Amino acid sequence: MFKNLTIYRVGPSWQPTQQEVEEALAKGQFLPCGPSEPLSLGWVPPRGIEHAPLVEVIDGHLHLKLTIESRVLPGSVVKERVDEIAAQIEEQTGRKPGKKALKDLKEQATHELLPLCFKKRSSIRVWIAPEQRLLMIDASSPARCEEVVSLLIKALDGLTLHLVQSAETPAACMAAWLMDGVPPEGFTIDRECELKSEDEMKSVVRYARHALDIEEVRQHLSSGKRPTKLAMSYKDRVSFLLTDTLAIKKIAFLDLVFEGHDKPEKDEQFDADAVIATGELAELIPALIEGLGGEHDFLGSAPKSLDIAELLPPDQDLALVSDDVPPWA
């Protein structure tokens, strides 16, 4: 269900109901690109079923889905059309169009070509854990994440978000784990890594499908290179790639997760996937933040730990109950 996660902290003042979120997102529901529109984006049902709710609540977790549709118009095609029009003008007038005229011709060519372009769609999932006040965006690009955040803040009155940051930098922690071979409890280091120098050369060394507990890696670290990516696993259940910006990429659920589970029926697949994904990642995320020294506290000086129990469904024994938890049922 999730391939990449960027983690945000939700401000304490945002406490709407599920219905309020549904109504707010409905105002920005997805509509396909018009003939002259290069881009369209909006909210769609997470289940992929037409007319289904825009907000799905499963085990206390909220699931949203943003669809982005764009028209594919290569710059080379626009340039070819501009050159063609410019050549016609020169033939008719005996003069080449100037810079301002060429700019106008580019707009004209774009307007002509857009309705003929193929359309490309992509989707971004958003997962909200309201009890812990966390919001996760399944996008690999920081620019895409910022776009989704802007849409959410605009749509949901009172919502504030900031990136979760660890008390210790991921790069420093990954370097320490590689140097001494001791990752945080429950985690193992896998066979992929990227090291980058901090000097003007910006030298990069990449390892793929390669053992990392070797002297060569330690020599690179000693010479000043710092990890920007490191493949890891958590309790032999989830593998992922941790980046120096605290983004979690290449998420994959391992065989152990599915042992003892029957294959769900087609109409139950979404719920089953959601339960597995949020259940496993709800344990991984706070453990990872704890391994990075806890969460950086923007309001105080002490790092803040994430409690695994806070992410569990409210009907489980370990769930924490707080007076300021919004009524998401």
Characterize the structure shown:
This protein is an alpha+beta fold and 329 residues long. Helices cover 33% and strands 25% of the residues. It has 9 helices and 12 strands. It has helices spanning 18-26, 75-93, 99-113, 142-155, 170-180, 215-222, 255-258, 269-291, 308-311; strands at 6-10, 39-43, 56-58, 61-72, 118-129, 134-138, 161-163, 187-196, 204-208, 226-234, 238-243, 248-253. Strands 1, 2, 3, 4, 5, 6 and 7 form a 7-stranded antiparallel beta sheet that branches. A hairpin with a 2-residue loop joins β3 (56-58) and β4 (61-72). α2 packs across α3. The model is unreliable at 313-329 (pLDDT under 50).
Provide the helix percentage. 25-40%
Low-pLDDT segments, ≥5 res? 313-329
* Average pLDDT reading: 89
Report the order of strands and helices: EHEEEHHEEHEHEEHEEEHHH
Describe this structure in a few short sentences.
The chain has 329 residues and is an alpha+beta fold. Helix content is 33%, strand content 25%.
